[in-house]
Amino acid sequence: MEMMILGLILFLGSHSVGIFAPLWREKTVGKIGLNPYKGITSLVALAGIILIVKGHDNALDSLTWGWAPPLFTKHLTVLLMLFALIMLVSSFVPNNHIKAKLKHPMILGVKIWAFSHLICNGEGANVILFGSFLVWAVLDFRSVRQKDRLASQADTVNHSPGVADQTINSAPIPQPSTFNTLLCIVLGALIWLALVAYLHNLLFGVYPILIPGVIGPSLAPAAAAVVMPT
């Protein structure tokens, strides 16, 4: 249990400096540079992931409290994960309508992933695990949206009458591409299909949904009774 908690602290903590200590982050980046800072936080996050994975099974055994989610939550989770993966992909594909509209699709994808897994996993360890990621994603999204508003206000001031336009020589912002948007949807759907049909069981030892003969093992046929003539 302690190992998983420590992993959560390291992983989520390394991604929370910008939420709770943005000035300290700026000062640190100014001293050591952006790339060294990213390297250090990446190593801390990697250590956190390793501890979470190694400590999860022990946490499942040590925490006996929990609840029993209804069956439909598993089906709902499978559906929600399709949207989460499309958002994840859209955060990497440039100039797509999803990213242009949502601004921060990766964080929203993490929110959907954490929420969908929280509602279908009632074990105490999983409630802590996915609940922690959900709380972090909510706080992080609120933080980046606040930064977006401040940046928008500053941009408005720069374009006010009597204020010199500081962006006159800046490169034009590329317009979202319909092709890139469709690419996000297709790639997200393909990753979703791979996870549902194979990868989730390979990585975590369980199928998100069972369709005998299609997803998961086939049902063993019942042995036919043979009646011998007398």
Question: Can you describe this structure?
Answer:
By secondary structure, the chain is an all-alpha fold. Helix content is 70%, strand content 0%. The chain contains nine helices and no strands. The chain has helices at residues 2-14, 17-20, 22-32, 34-62, 72-90, 97-102, 105-120, 124-158, 178-204. The longest helix is centred in the middle third of the chain and has 35 residues, at 124-158. 21% of the residues are buried. The model is unreliable at 222-230 (pLDDT under 50).
Q: Strand fraction band?
A: under 5%
Q: In total, how many beta strands? A: 0
Secondary-structure element string: HHHHHHHHH
Bulk shape: globular
The average pLDDT is 88
What's the gyration radius in Å? Answer: 23 Å
Outline the biggest β-sheet.
none
CA-CA gap between termini = 65 Å
Which blocks of ≥5 consecutive residues have pLDDT under 50? 222-230
Structural class: mainly alpha
Any idea how many domains? 2
Helix content: 55-70%
Question: What count of helical segments does DSSP give?
Answer: 9
SSE layout and pairing:
Layout (H helix, E strand, L loop, with lengths): L1 H13 L2 H4 L1 H11 L1 H29 L9 H19 L6 H6 L2 H16 L3 H35 L19 H27 L26
Helix pairs in contact: 1-4, 1-8, 3-4, 5-7, 5-9, 7-8
List keywords for this structure.
230 residues, mainly alpha, 2 domains, 9 helices
In a nutshell, what does this entry contain?
70% of the residues lie in helices and 0% in strands. By secondary structure, it is mainly alpha-helical.
